[in-house]
Write a structure and sequence with these properties.
By secondary structure, the chain is an all-beta fold. The protein folds into two domains: 11-42, no CATH class; 55-199, Jelly Rolls, CATH 2.60.120. The protein has strands spanning 17-19, 25-30, 33-36, 55-59, 62-71, 76-80, 84-87, 90-93, 97-108, 115-122, 133-135, 140-142, 151-162, 167-179, 192-199. A hairpin with a 2-residue loop joins strand 2 and strand 3.
Length: 200
Amino acid sequence: MADFSIKPTAGTGNKLILKDQAGNAVLTTSDSGATLASNITFDDSHKDIDIDVDSWDLLIGSTTSYSSDSIIDYDYTYKLGSNVTESAGVVTVSKAGYYFVTTCVGQWAQQTQQIDIVLQISDPSGSAGNTSYVKQPGRVLVVSPDAGESYGVSSMSWLAYLRATDKCCMYGTGHLYGNTSDAASQQNATNKFIGFRIGA
């Protein structure tokens, strides 16, 4: 099929104006280009992914031992998006959606305490943002590595649906090795808690 073109009568300033049922202009052409009216609504539900604002990347800077089940506190922030807050290891999101969450845990070989850590999220059956946490399937388990100058490191990932204001955190026990205090030492991290929104 040949091109189908619509254009105003030739002449500077002549316009092509498309209107809605109420007679309001929705598209108005100019001599070179066009302007969309402010009353146009775009279906952008599939275009709202902004990992920069809906993500977090936390590290443990100082070695910490959790002898009883506790929320793991990450004391060094590598990145915290503007839609996310963190307090004492608890992350709160402001935008609902599916989040890819992963953690890496590690300990120094001379420590014999077993690491056993899970992901917790706000109870989906309760109100948004509640702290009646529910454990997600799967856990990170590190049994003491052989004695010597070595490290035991493991990781686990989850796909979790979080509502606006819902919270999530890593929870468990273990001797967590930390060696991150500034930008130059970030590559030494063996304990990380990362998450980012991937869809509605």
